[in-house]
Amino acid sequence: MQNLSHNTGSPEDERRVRVGLVTDVGHIDDGTFNQYAYEGLRRAATELGLEYTYIETVRPEDHEVNLLILIEEQCGLIITVGNGLGKVVERVAKEHPDVDFVTVDFVVQPPLSNVLSLVFAEDQAGFLAGALAGCITRSNIVGVVAGETVPPVLRFRKGFARGARYVNPKVRVLSEHVESFNDPDKGRSIALSFVERGADVIFGAGGRTGSGAIRGAAEAGAWVIGVDQDEWFTTFERGRAPGSDRLVSSAIKRVDIAVENAVRDWAAGRFKGKSNWLGSLRNGGVGLAPFHAAENVVSQEIRARLNEVTIRLRDGALQTRIGPAGEDQLETLWDRLRVWDWGELAVLVLAVCTALLIGAVVIWVTRAADLRGAGLPWSQVIQEANALVVSAYGGLYEGAIGSPRALAGSLIYCTPYVMAGLAVALGFQCGLFNIGVEGQLYMGALCATVVGFSITGLPIYVHLPLAVAAGALGGAVWGAIPGALKAITGAHEVINTIMMNYIAVKTVDYLVKNPLKDVTATLDRTPFVAESARFPLLVPQLNIHSAVLLAFAAIGLVWYFLFKTTWGFEIRTVGANPSAARYAGISVKRSFVLAMALSGMLAGMGGLDVVLGRPSEYALKAAFSTGFGFDGIAVAMLAKSHPLGVFPAAFLWGALRNGAGLMQVRAQAISIDLVNIIQGLVIMFIAADQIIRWLYRLRARGEKAVVFTRGWGR
Amino acid sequence: MNAETIHNNPTGRKRFVTRARGLGLFYLILAIIVLVWTLSSGSPQALSRLGLGIILQPPPVRLTIPTQPSLIAIGLLLGVIGLYALLRSPSERTTNVLLGSGALFVVLGAIIAAAADKSIDLVGLVKDSVRLATPIMLGMLAGVMCERCAVINIGIEGMMLTAAAVGYMVSLYTQNMWLGLLAAVLSGGVMATLHALLTIQFLVDHIISGTCINILAVGISGYIRAAFLLKNPFGAPGLFPYVFQGTPLWDIPIIGTILFQYQPMVYAALVLVPLVWFVLFRTPWGLRTRAVGEHPRAADTVGINVFKIRYVNVILAGCVAGLGGAWFSLETVGHFDDLMTNNRGFIALAAMIFGNWNPLGGAAGALLFGFADALNFKFQILEVNVPYQFIGMLPFILTMVAVAGVIGRTTPPAADGQPYRKQ
């Protein structure tokens, strides 16, 4: 073990100058990416005089053995083809740091210094193929026969559909996946069924399955488009196969060029381990193949159109709107409204109503049991219990929104809920469950208060932003710690944030009772913050303060961040599917830390908005929060983790809490804790919406369950 | 390069930043803090008296040791451990020994420092630790039972809280604390049934479901208190009796105090820990449970009823958590207060992780947290010059350290938290 050379595979190492290739299940002349990768390797190796070798994988189980054979055979660089091999490389590469690896179509995570990953913008190639299909179709029906539902194939398929619709809005796209790359017969029969349904262009995206599809379709007289490489040379045997005049083009991934360049770099000692190479239109990594025998079908106008699409895609003026995992990215309002699941909204409303209804039943039963115990007749019991329910909910309504003062109270009440809800929602978007909002809230309030009272003599336009920034920073740091722990050690954020809640509460408790205590006050609290660090009141009679505006601004900013910026996109991708995000080369760890820090920041601002905004506060008390952090979870779930949903959800919550006081006054026997029960039920009904759908016979949505979090340590 | 480092380092390269080095640095910093604090603030004449037995009982058996020199000795020892770990980066096993002995010194130092010019009763400290560890231990068992069959349960806090409230309510209205205990166990089971329904039947995210249980429990218990307990028409039924009071066992010096001066829930916990361990690791049922926790599909294939295993385990776990709830209202306090479980349910989860999902290790973790609690109370009584909030923080910080893998790798059951659909 001591003698192992850690010389990262430079060719000077006498023993490791060979280059090896392991195919995905299939042969090196199978006309798919195996062949392309092999050709790239052959070209580079022949030219540079490198020794090279390959192993064709027969069964997926052999992947690892094949890799180990090549290592045994003293290969210094090993090229692996396909998604299936990737996982194996992840393990083997760690154990053999002296061998370099190039993975095609797979990104290892975490990045290793001896692995270079080659991936491609299949969506762009697919988009171009789709545009071509959209231009030449006469029936306005085109078809895609796709292979396994893995990200590269999904991106081809969806890119194709987008491209076709982009040039030809009237077009209809038929598509079907075959869960194998090696089933030409199945591909063929699906393609023929598409042709029967009127499709006149077929795109085959799925290894030999796709090739079977386009050969079948071409023989049946439809136009066909190949995939991965120019299928004129492979599937259609340089034009000798029947139907080759029907091949219009192919959506190609230049695996050969990518592999060739990687081998050259390696031989020259410039191997770029720990990185990804993305082949796109920009670097010629993807594109359309020549038209060959179909030259005359593609008119000058069509070529001009394709050219324009190519340039716009290349320069980013046109987006395929397909994510790295092959997921749709809907951007326009119309798109989103169209796919909006209105049943979803009904479930939310019904969940709240059902929870309120159960609350009413609880009141009724409590009262009835009480009166029966006192020996009253049933008729009177029913009457009294009904009256109590009415007066309780009447009080709740009046206290929440029944008067301008109540309405203002609910609005003020809801601002910290907005911030806490945004904080939890942002975490959910990244697949993280931030139960630590409460602690981050305390830290934010603490930092803002300290800046607020310790500095004096600043104008409000300096002091207030300073205090807000301090609070935001305090919350962000408190949130970033569990994020970083998750990224570095894999420790689950739920347990860490819970622990940090207690640490924060106890720290504040200590500080407020000892060093920061206002000695003139009887209550345990800090000194009042300076006038210049308070949020000015907007409507002094109703105590509406300007932190309300801060909450609205935060909603907008979080929405913009999540849906319009790269970081936000990365966070959402990580939340939707971490392994797909990894595939796309997104740093999952960075997203974890960033999302937790931002979530903490929002929570911190929720805390300071209570302390600096409410005239009843203006100083930090030991236990100032009434569980805003936990309410934040409910708000975020009610909002389905969408920032724009947070305001209505938070307002509902603020109103319920605000109205609870009057409810208790009106209905003496009823505890304020009823609101907690209602809250728990709302969360339950939203989390298990099957209950609501079953109760009200609502149609169930598809298999697209919202995943909020994951188990320990994943 | 020895076998163990290779095992930990698949790359074969010897990493510089190792767990031992991190530990060494931590102990070194701790040693410096101890030394600086001792030399700057302690008085050289102070004596620490450590009692062995109830101090007022004749004859008082005490160890009297000079505070400052012993603290300096402990500081130096910690420093040596730290330096050794930092410079040599020893093997995994040695690191564990260093970790254990260092922790022992830290605890000893804390006790000696607290007892400066005062007396601390060590035996009483042990007794309080066991007593205070009880709800954590029961909660930990509930957690282990759930998670071994891959259901994450962060609703233990809520189950205990509900059980505390319902148990007290029933014992108040029936004036029979044993019926109260039964009610507590059953209500824990009912809350667990809800959790099982949500997670197993409706495939709700386990953590969301647990949170929901916790929030519901706050509401239910608060509502019960306001609606049924405040206008209480009866007198409080009292606390569980001490099991061995009046027997000769009670009066045995030291051992009697440590072993026989408890109420029933403590013994329930002490019996359940080995029992759950035995069931999990030595019976077919336990094997099935663990199989379901590691690979439910495979378990299903060999004919194990995954759903049944999960339901039974989760509901029984809720009953165990219910015992923990009874500890609060029926064994310790004698009435019900809002939020009286005071986060012990979450600390129980930490103890579970501490013990690597094993009841025995978890019990050790629970005892550690119980000890921190006991120390916290003692320090408050002695008016030690350390803010009690900081001692109260210790379990939480320890948990974070444990979860981060510093104390050793923890591995949850492989399928923990994943929904299971029958195919």
Features:
heterodimer; A: 714 residues; alpha/beta; Rossmann fold; ABC transporter involved in vitamin B12 uptake, BtuC; 3 domains; six-stranded mixed beta sheet; 24 helices; 14 strands; disordered C terminus; B: 423 residues; 2 domains; globular; disordered N terminus
Task: Please characterize this protein's 3D structure.
The complex is a heterodimer of chains A (714) and B (423). Chain A has 714 residues and is α/β, with parallel strands linked by helices. Helices cover 56% and strands 10% of the residues of chain A. In chain A, strands 2-1-3-4-5-11 form a six-stranded parallel beta sheet, sandwiched between helices. In chain A, strand 6 (141-146), helix 5 and strand 7 form a beta-alpha-beta unit. In chain A, helix 14 runs antiparallel to helix 15. The longest helix of chain A is centred in the middle third of the chain and has 32 residues, at 342-373. Chain A is elongated and about 95 Å long. In chain B, helix 6 packs across helix 15 (344-354). Chain B is globular and about 65 Å long. Chain B has a three-stranded mixed beta sheet. Chain B has 423 residues and is mostly helical. Chain B folds into two domains: 3-117, no CATH class; 123-403, ABC transporter involved in vitamin B12 uptake, BtuC, CATH 1.10.3470. Chain B has helices at 3-8, 19-41, 67-88, 92-114, 122-147, 156-174, 177-201, 206-229, 248-251, 255-260, 264-282, 284-294, 296-301, 306-333, 344-354, 359-382, 388-403, and strands at 47-51, 62-66, 119-121. The interface between A and B is large, with 63 and 54 residues.
